[in-house]
Write a sequence for this structure.
């Protein structure tokens, strides 16, 4: 079968479903834990369910091209509803279940949804809160009837009612369904996903069947995903990643998607399901690792010692073993023993025993966190993607996994970097348009199909891997025109436990400088071990030996930065350790602990000047806000340290 | 309990005639009078609140209803049957379930086992099969487990199914205790300060569960609360006690406007 | 030097030199330990369910055995006597609940403990009054229990296994397993744990305390009867047996008062320990070590791990 005829036959998700029902009929497709028991549906059953829902949709008057909004936590019936919507020629629009009523009102109005499928009372309440919803929305359907008994049911239907309505008129609707399916093809819309844009209103990204199926196909082939693989669907249904994993790849490859019982049971369900394909944001891996470490702190001495010994072994040889590099016999033996005593039980606890392909993306993951999982033998990799690309832009192939890159361009993806360092891509996954927003579409996607990511990055010459530096708008130029990427440097500094926060300055200047906040618990611990007495945060922060330690960290960071020719200009020449912690109460950080660069720049103008004019120390006085709202001021004389930098190679043309 | 007595509420629930009448109850401990000559009734299907300042005799009243305390005077009429005093076992087997002010769970047991224990009276007392633990006993266990799982789902405590309850935070323990009381499928549910010691969010959750229990299963609920605000939102009728005496009885709005009630609360608060 | 040799070297030389004899000693220790464990189990059952330390458990063993033999001597067929003895233990459980526990609800633990001391004297008196005080021998073969022995060649020597010992171990194993299953899996087991946890809450869900008490006392009675038969078959049936029954105390201190596995492990440790110590080190101390060894071990445990091997750590919430 050539790929052309294949594409002709399998050009919509409902067609993939029909194929799966015949080819993989008995294989499990959906699972959900309910009342403490895992329920399971095979492909044939899923097919029957989707058809039933689709007939119901026709019965209540869903028209081709209608938008059907779907809100709720990951549940098989909601996934089936998306495919049912596609079957009747409508466009599924999954929304974030934690969206507040106003946000929901905006998107409902924007896409002009006439039908809404929700999980429960909470979502029904939100919809009914929207003023004027009765005119625009024809029907609201819900899965869980709890608490809804006494609601006005003129426009409200239980999911079961809809199925019954469809069954009652089956013969007529069946032919209608066939008609609707016939006009669907590779270029009709598959799904619309709203991106929660950091600024402005959310935009509706329209993705065609081609976008989704091509992306699903090439990524499934990239990692050899197939029937028998298993994933846990726990990330928001409105997120493009979930749509690709739980519908695109799932329907393409025919693997099984399991839905957790509730948000809180996710860890436990993960352990029970033991997925072979797993995605989680870096924060998830960080939280799990922290939980493991805390448990180990409480464990007995022998256990702790055993854990440390085997983790050292794993750190040394685990990553190599994972990619099949040669490892000495003794190390191999120790690792084998470690697998029985430590790694195996640990992976089992984390629910990652069977993970064959694991991905993380979205933000930078700490190298030591990344290495921890890989050293246990979990094939954790990074990818880089966007809603507009139907997820995949770059992925790390097995055997080329590193914490600092996001991989090579996925199959069929082209990448170019513009003069400002911004990453652009073109691929079969590139979105059709932003719904009802031609200006944004035009400013994001050029006529040749190239899409601007908004991220600055570069491609490594020797490996072909893409490395992301920062958001493009946050990347500036230094006086000599080379790239200035403060967040990139700050992240590298913050990977040291002793450094809590770092703020790097250097836009339009000759060299970079930095403010450092020490981490009081880490440095305090270190001070205790080294018999360094200190009376206050300020005293510890200004201590000669603390500065030595931090200086060492900065030097190491400089060496690492210098190895990237594009960024070697960002090496930190001089730094100081701040006498107070940057604080949201003082307006220096956002409540989500993001540094407010501009405000800090204004507030500590004297310090920045001292960093650039070569002084050895500076006296400063700073206003602070105490927890009870009172204001006071603290003053200190701060030392400024020069740090060795690596000579810059000639700037690449 | 006759149908001519039943009324429809605005939100579509049916409230019947009295399922329980407390008549002229007095309770003394030694020389101290805890409850003095109190009468009120609880209608089938309603949420009835008993409120009052600390030391008003609310918990004593609940203990009388559930049979822990035996009053010196008065009568309790439950489902048409008059008694001078309940025994806890009789109360439980007649369909009165309760929770406790300070949470009285079986701490060493899991959430699941705690709620299963709540079904004790629903289980057939076939000692012989219980000994062997197969045949009918096994089937029975399975069916009870189904009911318990529905309660777990209802209270959204799936994540703590297997956790020993002693390890749970207080708010969740209260929820498990409610689950255990529900497991008996009670016709009268007594809640002793279900929201005590909870934060605002937990209080909201608990209020929702209480309303849902009443709405979905039609369970009659009598609850004691210290916090007036919560009660006014969820109760159909309110009895106010102060120093062991009844000072008001009526709809939340009426009670709230009652001068004696205002005085009693102000008197305690300041 | 000689003394040091006798303590630290000679016993091990003997063990290695005569492995067949060593195995024999281990076996004896194992069987004794199993029976200790059974007696301790009776204590644990009652203690867990009601918080009562049943001083009379040891006497119940003797009383059960005495009843069985007494009935047989009175002309009742052996198996019927066994059933009747079970009935007597059931009646005892009901009577204890009706006449003692019910009236002492909510009294301090020490009062209940005193009541069980009273119970034990009552049982001694009552037993002697009905069946007489003279020593009797157990009706082992009449009950269908094996009496022979098997000789096994081992490491150039022989080891002798009394069939009654094998039967004792097997029966004890079955009894312990079924009790453990019953109390961990069944509704009554759950109710029992509930009562142990919180009396008032148990009452509120409709668990009948009286019923639970009868059940645990009856279970303890069954265990006592089984223990009585096995001990009686190994020695004789007389009130002297209660001294042996008191060995349950150190076993409990070792294993923890609330733990069934603790009772088993504790029993085995004491059983093995005192046999080995008696045989290999006893000579140095003039013999009779078996009488006090268990108590010394218990004392050491009280000093270093008062909650026992498996006991719950007592954490009071603040």
């Amino acid at each position: 079968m050539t790929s052309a005829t294949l594409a002709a036959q399998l050009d919509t998700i409902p067609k993939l479903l029909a194929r799966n029902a015949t080819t993989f009929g008995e294989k499990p497709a959906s699972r959900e834990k309910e009342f403490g028991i895992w329920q399971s549906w095979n492909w044939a059953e899923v097919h029957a369910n989707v058809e039933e829902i689709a007939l119901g949709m026709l019965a209540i008057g869903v028209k081709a091209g209608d938008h059907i909004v779907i809100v709720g936590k990951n549940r098989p019936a909601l996934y089936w509803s998306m495919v049912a919507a596609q079957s009747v020629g409508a466009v599924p629009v999954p929304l974030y279940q934690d969206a507040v009523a106003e946000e929901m009102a905006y998107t409902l109005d924007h896409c002009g949804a006439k039908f809404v499928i929700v999980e429960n009372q909470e979502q029904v309440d939100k919809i009914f809160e929207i003023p004027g919803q009765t005119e625009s929305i024809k029907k609201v359907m819900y899965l869980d009837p709890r608490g809804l008994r006494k609601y006005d049911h003129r426009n409200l239907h239980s999911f079961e009612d809809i199925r019954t309505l469809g069954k009652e008129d089956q013969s007529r609707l069946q032919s209608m369904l066939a008609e609707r399916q016939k006009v669907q093809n590779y270029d009709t819309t598959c799904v619309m996903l709203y991106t929660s844009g950091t600024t402005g209103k959310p935009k509706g990204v329209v993705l065609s069947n081609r976008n989704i199926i091509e992306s699903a196909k090439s990524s499934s082939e990239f990692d050899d995903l197939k029937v028998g693989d298993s994933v846990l669907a726990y990330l928001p249904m409105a997120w493009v990643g979930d749509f690709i994993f739980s519908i695109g790849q799932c329907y393409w490859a025919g693997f099984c998607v399991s839905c957790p019982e509730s948000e809180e049971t996710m860890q436990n369900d993960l352990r029970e399901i033991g997925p072979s394909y797993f995605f989680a944001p870096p924060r998830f891996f960080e939280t799990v690792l922290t939980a493991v470490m805390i448990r180990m702190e409480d464990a007995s001495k022998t256990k702790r010692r055993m854990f440390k010994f085997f983790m050292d072994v794993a750190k040394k040889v685990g990553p190599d073993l994972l990619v099949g590099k040669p490892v000495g016999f003794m190390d191999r033996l120790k690792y084998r023993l470690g697998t029985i005593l430590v790694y195996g039980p640990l992976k089992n606890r984390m629910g990652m025993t069977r993970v064959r392909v694991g991905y993380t993306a979205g933000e930078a993951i700490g190298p030591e966190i990344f290495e921890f999982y890989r050293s246990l033998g979990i094939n954790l990799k990074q990818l880089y993607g966007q809603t507009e690309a139907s997820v995949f832009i770059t992925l790390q192939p097995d055997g080329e996994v590193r914490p600092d890159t996001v991989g090579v361009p996925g199959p069929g993806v082209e990448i170019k970097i513009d003069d400002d360092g911004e990453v652009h891509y073109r691929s079969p996954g590139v979105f059709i348009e932003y719904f009802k927003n031609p200006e944004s579409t035009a400013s994001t996607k050029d006529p040749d199909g190239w899409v601007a990511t908004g991220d600055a990055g570069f491609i490594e010459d020797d490996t072909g891997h893409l490395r992301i530096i920062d958001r493009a708008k946050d990347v500036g130029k230094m006086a000599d025109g080379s790239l200035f990427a403060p967040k990139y440097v700050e992240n590298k500094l913050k990977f040291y436990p002793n450094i809590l926060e770092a703020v790097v300055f250097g836009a339009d200047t000759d060299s970079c400088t930095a403010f450092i906040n020490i981490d009081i618990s880490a440095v305090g611990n270190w001070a205790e071990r080294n018999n360094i007495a200190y009376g206050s945060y300020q005293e510890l922060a200004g201590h000669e030996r603390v500065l030595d330690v931090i200086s060492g960290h900065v030097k190491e960071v400089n060496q690492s930065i210098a190895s990237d020719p594009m960024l070697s200009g960002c090496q930190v020449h001089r730094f100081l350790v701040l006498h107070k912690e940057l604080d949201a109460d003082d307006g220096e950080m956002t409540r989500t602990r993001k540094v407010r660069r501009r405000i800090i720049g204004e507030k500590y103008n004297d310090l920045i000047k001292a960093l650039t004019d070569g002084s050895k120390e500076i006296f400063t006085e700073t206003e602070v806000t105490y927890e009870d709202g009172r204001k006071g001021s603290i003053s200190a004389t701060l030392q400024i340290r020069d740090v060795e930098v690596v000579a810059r190679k000639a700037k690449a043309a | 309990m006759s149908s001519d007595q039943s009324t429809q509420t605005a939100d579509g629930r049916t409230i019947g005639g009295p399922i329980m009448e407390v008549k002229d109850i007095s309770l003394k401990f030694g020389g101290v009078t805890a409850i003095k000559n109190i009468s009120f009734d609880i209608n089938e299907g309603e949420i009835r609140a008993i409120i009052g300042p600390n030391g008003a005799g609310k918990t004593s009243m609940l203990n009388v209803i559930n049979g822990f305390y035996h009053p010196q005077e008065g009568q309790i009429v439950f489902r048409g049957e008059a008694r001078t005093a309940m025994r806890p076992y009789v109360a439980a087997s007649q369909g009165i379930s309760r929770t406790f002010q300070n949470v009285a769970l079986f701490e060493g047991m899991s959430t699941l086992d705690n709620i299963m224990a709540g079904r004790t009276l629903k289980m057939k007392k076939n000692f012989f099969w219980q000994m062997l633990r197969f045949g009918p006993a096994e089937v029975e266990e399975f069916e009870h487990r189904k009911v318990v799982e529905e309660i777990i789902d209802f209270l959204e405590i799936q994540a703590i199914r297997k956790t020993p309850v002693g390890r749970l935070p207080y708010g969740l323990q209260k929820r498990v205790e409610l689950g255990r009381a529900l497991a008996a499928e009670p016709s009268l549910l007594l809640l002793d300060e279900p929201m005590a010691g909870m934060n605002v969010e937990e209080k909201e959750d608990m209020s929702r569960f209480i309303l849902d229990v009443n709405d979905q299963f039609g369970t009659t609920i009598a609850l004691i609360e210290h916090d007036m605000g919560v009660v006014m939102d969820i109760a159909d009728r309110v009895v106010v006690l102060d120093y062991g005496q009844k000072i008001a009885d009526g709809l939340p709005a009426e009670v709230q406007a009652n001068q004696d009630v205002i005085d009693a609360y102000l008197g305690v608060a300041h | 030097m000689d003394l040091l040799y006798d303590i630290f070297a000679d016993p091990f030389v003997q063990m290695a030199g005569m492995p067949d004899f060593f195995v024999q000693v281990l076996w004896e220790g194992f069987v004794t330990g199993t029976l200790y464990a059974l007696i301790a189990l009776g204590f644990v059952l009652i203690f867990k369910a009601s918080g009562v330390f049943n001083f009379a458990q040891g006497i119940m063993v003797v009383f059960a055995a005495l009843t069985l033999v007494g009935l047989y001597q009175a002309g009742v067929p052996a198996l019927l006597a066994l059933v009747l003895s079970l009935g007597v233990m059931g009646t005892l459980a009901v009577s204890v609940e009706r006449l003692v526990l019910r009236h002492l609800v909510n009294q301090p633990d020490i009062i209940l403990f005193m009541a069980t001391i009273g119970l034990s004297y009552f049982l001694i008196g009552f037993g002697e009054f009905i069946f007489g005080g003279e020593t009797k021998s157990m009706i082992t073969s009449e009950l269908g229990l094996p009496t022979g022995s098997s000789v096994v060649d081992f490491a150039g020597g022989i080891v002798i296994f009394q069939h009654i010992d094998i039967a004792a171990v097997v029966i004890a194993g079955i009894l312990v397993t079924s009790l453990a299953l019953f109390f961990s899996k069944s509704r009554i087991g759950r109710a029992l744990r509930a009562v142990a946890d919180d009396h008032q809450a148990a009452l509120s869900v409709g668990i009948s305390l009286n019923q639970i008490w009868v059940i645990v006392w009856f279970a303890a009675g069954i265990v006592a009867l089984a223990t009585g038969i096995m001990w009686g078959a190994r020695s004789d049936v007389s009130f002297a047996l209660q001294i042996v029954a008191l060995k349950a105390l150190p076993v409990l201190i070792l294993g923890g008062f609330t733990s069934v596995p603790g009772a088993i492990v504790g029993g085995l440790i004491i059983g093995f320990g005192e046999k080995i110590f008696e045989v290999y080190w006893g000579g140095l101390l003039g013999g009779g070590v078996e009488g006090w060894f268990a108590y010394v071990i218990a004392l050491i445990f009280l000093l270093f791990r008062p909650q026992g091997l498996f006991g719950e750590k007592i954490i009071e919430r603040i």
Q: What stands out?
A: Residues 1-95+186-270 of chain B form a domain with the Rossmann fold fold (CATH 3.40.50.300). The radius of gyration of chain B is 19 Å. Chain B touches chain A through 17 residues (CB under 8 Å). Chain B has ten helices and twelve strands.
